[in-house]
Amino acid sequence: MATIKVRKDGPYLVTGGAEITDAEGNPIEAKNNDNFALCRCGKSQNKPFCDGAHSVTGFTDGK
To answer: What is the pTM of this model?
Structure first.
């Protein structure tokens, strides 16, 4: 069962495996399909995955 944890001012951490598809339904391969981080800030150069850009862009989740 997949679990998604929202990190304060950071990415969504996905554990337990999940299938990822783009807007057209095409699969997107994760390096490790069991554990990965999804970008929330929109600044990642590796979307939809987090590359740590949130930490240098000053992203906050507004909470």
So the answer is: 0.89
* Predicted confidence band of residue 23 (pLDDT cuts 50, 70, 90): very high
Which pLDDT does position 44 carry in this prediction?
97
21-40: string of b/e by CB count within 10 Å (b at 16+)? eeeeeeeeebeeeeebbbbb
The answer to whether residues 9 and 61 touch, using CB atoms and an 8 Å cutoff, is yes
Q: What is the CATH architecture of 1-19+33-63?
A: 3-Layer(aba) Sandwich (3.40)
Place of tokens 């949130």: 54
